[in-house]
Amino acid sequence: MIELLEKLSNADSIASNENEVRNIIKNELSEYSKTFTYDGLGSLMIKKSASIEKAPTIMFAAHMDEVGFMIRNISDIGFVHLMPVGGVEDRAKINQLVRATSQTGKKFYGVMNIIRNPSGEIEDIYADFGFDNREEFKNSGLQIGDMVVFGSSFRRLEKTKNVTGKAMDNRAGDFALIKAMHGLFNKNLNVNVIAAFTSSEEVGTRGARLCSNIVKPDLFFAVDVAKHPELDRGFTNHRKLGYGPMIEFYDKTMIPNRKLINYLRKLAKRNKVPYQEDMFKGGGTDAATAHLENSGVASAVIGFPIKYCHDPYSFANIEDFEYTSNLIQLIAESMDKEKVAEFYNF
């Protein structure tokens, strides 16, 4: 399914502009098409029903949006000035190939660069798409508000099990969840499974909050990524590529249900699925808002390790996709009403 990952990575979808990724997912999971529902932002929810009545519901959420930009201003010399959408790395704003999408879907390639203030801080971001004046820009079909993303192309790295491309945050999570839903299609389950491909995570975990409010899941799992500190190969690095997904113990937006965390550890060990254990000093995932809905939802984060997060190219490991997908399926296949109730036995 590496071709699917390539499609997802090369697709352009910033917050509230996720059509390209959403359409790929709908096509790939067409066997579930009768179950497709949406929130008001465009998050896609797909349901695998339990084989029994009155079953609890668990939700896995992977966001569709990537960090990027919107066209904010147009200068007299035809340059566009950009507004970041999400936490783009500062190093990723300098002399980068970018791609803009018009409202009709036409693509334009250009080069992005920065202007610094006297203190050396980034004051403005601009892109040159080859237009010589404002009129040429307007005649192209591009407008203020149009989406701009990195102009990267997906690649398989030679002689390794790694791939690289843009938007692995969170196309890696999307891919693993799609793969898991394929695997669950013909399975008899004791829980309903909702795969939520959410909108607008990079600007405040907005879609997950709505999906959780609509579905009211009994358990919530964010399927997201974490940045590998590429120069650290020591004992403090719990985000190594090829060592399996991370089970997260803490971030500034959520501390997960400890019984649920312990259950995931035992489940992974029993089934020989490699995993890592980590905590985030900052940041958050879709679980940040989702776990606070419906009087509180027992939640956990399954983190996919990548290098160079929020950069033009990120690295991901092919084996980690398999491990993450397997863990999602194991969770769904092992859950039942009694197990879910135990997580709430305080």
UniProtKB/TrEMBL annotation:
<keyword id="KW-0031">Aminopeptidase</keyword>
<dbReference type="InterPro" id="IPR008007">
    <property type="entry name" value="Peptidase_M42"/>
</dbReference>
<keyword id="KW-0645">Protease</keyword>
<comment type="similarity">
    <text>Belongs to the peptidase M42 family.</text>
</comment>
<keyword id="KW-0378">Hydrolase</keyword>
<keyword id="KW-0479">Metal-binding</keyword>
<dbReference type="InterPro" id="IPR023367">
    <property type="entry name" value="Peptidase_M42_dom2"/>
</dbReference>
<dbReference type="InterPro" id="IPR051464">
    <property type="entry name" value="Peptidase_M42_aminopept"/>
</dbReference>
<dbReference type="GO" id="GO:0004177">
    <property type="term" value="F:aminopeptidase activity"/>
</dbReference>
<protein>
    <submittedName>
        <fullName>Aminopeptidase FrvX</fullName>
    </submittedName>
</protein>
<dbReference type="Pfam" id="PF05343">
    <property type="entry name" value="Peptidase_M42"/>
</dbReference>
